[in-house]
Structures are given as structure tokens and as C-alpha cells.
Amino acid sequence: MHQRLLRPDEPERIARLKRELAALGALTLPGFEAGGAATDRLKTLAAELEALNPTPQPALAPQLHRGRWHLLYSSLGLHVETTLARLTFGALPKTVVTVTEVFQETDPETHHYDNVVHLVDAEGVPATLVIAGHFRPEAPDGLRLRFTEAILWREGARERTSIATGHVPAMRTRLSFLDESFRLMRSARGSLYVLERLDPSPAHWARDG
How many CA atoms lie within 13 A of 86 on its CB side? Predict the structure, then answer.
């Protein structure tokens, strides 16, 4: 893995930006676009951090990808009150749910790339939804993603449903910042995702229960 040689002042600047991003991420609804001053500030900090990216070829740095990541912020316009259908590209029914947290789990050895959504249903029953997929590098800073299966864990039972890949095209994303604890990504349409790594080597993956 090639790391850019940082200037003497950059490590502290990067650390400060990451601390402030984490603090602001805690003020938004679970990782979602919320609007207001906190969100505007978060976008500004993200742009500053991207300019300090220490990993010039982030898609080719597999050891920095592996682990469980917490979604601090997304400008995609996701909704806390949503349905299972919207979360799974129509694979599951239009059951109304409330999202509480969102994570990503990635493993470069198996190439799995899973969105892990913690939620509760209308009766308050908690569940975990895994939108399971895989990834591969497509450029020094780009990833190609495809989601293939929805796995719903609820009250100890697992329900697996295939996602009709013919109706869900492969997605492309650009890694705009990557180090041992933070990952920033931009979708093909410019949506921003800010993630913090919680565990580089999870004992188990959510897709496995």
C-alpha cells in the first residue's frame, strides 16, 4: 500500500477534522441528511478532509477496507421512516420500519460489501437487515458494487430473499478519503458518505447472524 508522505502539520489537521466529523455525525439522525447548520458544517469538514487524503490509491489498499464501519452521514436523502421495500430495491414487502443505525461490513478476502441496517417495525420489534453484496476495485480510487440478497434477522429467525440484479444495475463509487479509521465516498451522482471504522477484524459478520 502506498501512503502519501504527509507534511508535518497534516496528521494533527486530519485528526482534528475526524474528531469534529464524528461529533457532528452524532447530531444528525442516524447517518442521514438532516439539514441545518450541523449538516452544512459536516459537508465543509468532509471536503477539507478529502483534500488531505493520505492514500492516493484507496481502492487498492485492501487492509484498510476490512471491517465494520459506522455510517456517520449520508447526503443521499435516506429516510428514518421508510419501508423494507425501499431499503432492498423492492425485494421485501412495503412494511413500514424505523431505521435506528446503519453500518457497512466489508471483507476484501471474500469481496463482500454489506449494508447493515438496524431497525424496528411498527410494533417496536427490533430487527437487523443486511443488504448483502460484493465489490471489486475498478480504478485506483473507484469501486464497483452490486447488491444481490436481502437478509432479515428478526426474533432469532433469518429470512433470505434474492435481489433481482437485472433490475438493479451495478453501482460505482469513488473513495475520496481512506485511512485506518475513516472512509469518505462519493457516488456517481455526487452523494457523500462519511464512515468511521469501529472494528477492523470482526469476530463475525452480520450476514452470518
Answer: 12
Q: How far apart are alpha carbons 206 and 5 in whole angstroms?
A: 36
**CA nearest to 180, candidates 193, 194, 196, 192:** 196
pLDDT tens digits, 148-163? 999 999 988 999 999 9
- Alpha-carbon distance of 29 to 120, in angstroms, equals 15
- Is 131 part of a structural domain of the chain? yes
Q: Are 102 and 62 in contact (CB under 8 A)?
A: no
Please check whether residue 5 lies inside any domain of the structure. no
**83: CATH:** 2.40.128.280
CA–CA dist 128, 154 (Å, integer): 7
* Domain span holding position 38: 10-199
Query: Does a structural domain hold residue 116?
Result: yes
- Look up the pTM and report it: 0.92
Number of domains into which the chain is organized: 1
Q: Kindly report each contact of residues 164-169 with a partner whose C-beta sits within 8 Å and lies 24 or more positions away, as own/partner.
A: 164/89, 164/90, 164/91, 167/89, 167/90, 168/89
